[in-house]
Write a sequence for this structure.
C-alpha cells in the first residue's frame, strides 16, 4: 500500500483557512464525510477523543490526526496545507501548517499502523515537506506525496 492507496487528488486541500485546531478538525471531518459517507460528527468525535490522549502534532509544523471508525470501508486519507499555521499543541510547540488526516476501519489493526508509519516516513523527508509548503496545485501535491520513495516503501 502506498499513499496513492489512501487518497486521491480530490482529497488534497492546498489552501485551507482555519483559526484553531478544533475548527480544523471540524472542517476536515466535514470533508471526510463527503469521502466516506460517515457522519462528520462521528468523525470529529473520534478525532477529538484521539487528541485527548495526546496531540497528533508530530513536530516541524506537521500533524497527523487519525482515528478508527466503525462502518468505514477502507483506510482513507485527506491532506491539507494551511494558509496560516495554527497552534496544534504539537510535541515541539511549533504551529502546524501541514496536516495528513488518516481514518481507518475499526478492525484495521496493523494496516492502520502501517499507513501511519508510511505517512510519517514521507513527512520526515525535509525536501518533500519543503516542496509541499511551496505548492498550491492539488495534482502537484498529490504527485509529491505519491511519487516519493518513502510513500511506496514497505
Amino acid at each position: 500500500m502506498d499513499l496513492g492507496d489512501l487518497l486521491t487528488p480530490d482529497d488534497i486541500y492546498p489552501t485551507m483557512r482555519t483559526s484553531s485546531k478544533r475548527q480544523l478538525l471540524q472542517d476536515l471531518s466535514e470533508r471526510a464525510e463527503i469521502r466516506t459517507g460517515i457522519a462528520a460528527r462521528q468523525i470529529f468525535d473520534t478525532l477529538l477523543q484521539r487528541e485527548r490522549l495526546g496531540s497528533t502534532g508530530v513536530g516541524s509544523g506537521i500533524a497527523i490526526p487519525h482515528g478508527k471508525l466503525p462502518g468505514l470501508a477502507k483506510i482513507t486519507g485527506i491532506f491539507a496545507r494551511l494558509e496560516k499555521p495554527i497552534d496544534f499543541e504539537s510535541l515541539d510547540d511549533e504551529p502546524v501548517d501541514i496536516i495528513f488526516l488518516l481514518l481507518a476501519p475499526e478492525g484495521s489493526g496493523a494496516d492502520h499502523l502501517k499507513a501511519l508509519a508510511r505517512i510519517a516516513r514521507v513527512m520526515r523527508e525535509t525536501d518533500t515537506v519543503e516542496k509541499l509548503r511551496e505548492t498550491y496545485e492539488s495534482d502537484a501535491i498529490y504527485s509529491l506525496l505519491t511519487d516519493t520513495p518513502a510513500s511506496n516503501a514497505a
User: Anything to note?
Assistant: The longest strand covers residues 76-86. The helical segments are 21-36, 40-53, 110-124, 126-134, 138-146, 149-152.
